[in-house]
Specification:
This protein has 256 residues and is α/β, with parallel strands linked by helices. 32% of the residues lie in helices and 23% in strands. The chain has two domains: 39-102, Ubiquitin-like (UB roll) (Roll); 105-247, Cell division protein FtsQ/DivIB (Rossmann fold, 3-Layer(aba) Sandwich), CATH 3.40.50.11690. The longest helix is centred in the N-terminal third of the chain and has 30 residues, at 2-31.
């Protein structure tokens, strides 16, 4: 009986050892046959084309893909200033699939000679060539403190006012939001808005941003459709609590 048990134990141990050796051989062979990448595809982009993203991150077709790994590709694409995060995988036939999630850009900001993008988290990002900014309003003449390095959120009361205006339009009136061309912060003075399709400025002032946007939304259709009331206007003034002032051209009568 003891001999049979010993024989069975030895047999089981032998099977385990052989199985382990086979597994180790398979793993070593597999690790030595790393997939060689020949193509890279990118999706999820809107600010830049896929080719622009790959070119600026040194992942274009001119690069030797055989030297790349998935972690390296992920690291390169996530270092792009427009990219919040990325998912990278292979299709098993030599093609790398990249899906990027871009940072949400709020506006194009003019702070001197170099235009920048500002994200929803108040991060200023350098504007790259070929960036699609057609849907972004411009924020101009804003006071910003000097930054030590890029990628740091800026703390600006004026910029926060501009964001309140943009957000209020976004949730209140889609047409008004899409036609917003510029928010001129005038370095802390009365804010002036400019819209596509309207030939005169809207003097917005400061404070009560949501309330003023609601008032502006109430007359928006007449503004954009050039209603008779606004046909010859020079400006619309929202600086007063419960009134909307419409600036008319002044004509002088000459007698004699």
């Amino acid at each position: 009986m003891k001999e049979k048990l010993g024989l069975m134990f030895g047999l089981v141990l032998f099977v385990i050892i052989i199985s382990g050796m086979i597994y180790l051989i398979a793993v070593s062979r597999g690790s030595g046959e790393a997939e060689v990448f020949t193509r890279i595809g990118l999706s999820g982009n809107s600010l830049l084309t896929a080719s622009d993203y790959l070119m600026s991150t040194n992942l274009s077709g001119k690069v030797d893909y055989s030297e790349l790994t998935l972690p390296v590709i992920k690291s390169r694409i996530e270092h792009h200033p427009y990219v919040k995060r990325a998912e990278v995988q292979t299709d098993g036939s030599g093609k790398v699939l990249i899906k990027i999630f871009e940072k949400k850009m709020k506006a194009l900001i003019l702070t001197g000679s170099v235009p920048e993008l500002v994200t929803e988290r108040f991060e200023l990002v350098k504007l790259e060539k070929n960036t699609d900014i057609t849907d972004l309003p411009v924020i101009s003449n804003v006071n910003l403190k000097k930054r030590e390095k890029p990628g740091i959120s800026v703390n600006s009361v004026e910029l926060k006012r501009a964001f309140k205006i943009i957000d209020a339009m976004y949730f209140t009136n889609e047409s008004m939001y899409k036609n917003l061309a510029e928010i001129n912060l005038r370095y802390g003075g009365d804010i002036v808005l400019t819209f596509s399709g309207i030939d005169y400025p809207v003097i917005f002032g400061k404070g009560n941003e949501v309330k003023k946007i609601i008032k502006l939304s109430a007359i928006w259709k007449k503004l954009i459709n050039k209603d008779k009331l606004f046909a010859n206007s020079k400006y619309v003034d929202l600086r007063f609590n419960s009134e909307i002032f419409i600036g008319k051209p002044v004509t002088a009568e000459l007698n004699g």
